[in-house]
Design a protein that fits this description.
The protein has about 180 residues and is α/β, with parallel strands linked by helices. The chain folds into two domains: about 10-110, Rhodanese-like domain (Oxidized Rhodanese, domain 1), CATH 3.40.250.10; about 120-175. The protein has seven helices and eight strands, in the order E-E-H-E-H-E-E-E-H-E-H-E-H-H-H. The protein has helices at about 15-20, 35-40, 75-85, 95-105, 120-140, 145-160, 165-170; strands spanning about 1-5, 10, 25-30, 40, 45, 65-70, 90-95, 110. It has a six-stranded mixed β-sheet with strand order 1-2-7-6-3-5. Strands 4-8 form a two-stranded antiparallel ribbon. Helix 5 crosses helix 7 (about 165-170). The radius of gyration is 19 Å and the shape is elongated. The protein starts with a strand and ends in an 8-residue tail after the last helix. This is Rhodanese-like domain protein. One of its GO terms (molecular function) is thiosulfate-cyanide sulfurtransferase activity. Pfam families: Rhodanese, YgaP-like_TM. InterPro entries: Rhodanese-like_dom (IPR001763), Rhodanese-like_dom_sf (IPR036873), YgaP-like_TM (IPR021309).
Length: about 180
Amino acid sequence: MVLANANNLQEIDAQTLKQWLDRQQVMLIDVREPGEYASEHIPGAKLMPLSNLNPTGVKPETNQQVVLYCQSGNRSKQAAQKLFESGFESVNHLQGGLPTWKSAGYQTQVNKNAPISLFRQVQIVAGTLVFTGTILGAFVSPWFLILSGFVGAGLVFAGVSGTCAMGMLLAKLPYNQRV
């Protein structure tokens, strides 16, 4: 199934993507960060992270559709906007991202030696900062509670806006750049 919106961004489901992949009618682009791609991706996908996506590098062969995907669909929509701004007239993205592909029962390429997911890294760092701020606030000075409050406010902002500054910073660490 293919759904289109005003920007000519078409949302496709996993079944349509699978059919196009089988017929080699697609240039599939993973716009997640290298660490995420390294841990799991759809076979045949090219890595072009949204953080440094260069639309001139997207060169589909004749009769190929450009399909973007990420973890949830948010980053692929942002990547599609970059492609539209550079002159692409039609771009597709996988509705629901990688989880949709997996829930349809299609295979992924998994690397057990890849770094842990960015989401888990954010949980570990945020939890450590909140815990440390709380302990220091209770036993050293109440001013350390500002640290816990700051991290909590950042998590609320990340949830509401769909952008996570801590995640973007962690994605730039060297161990998250390996593919």
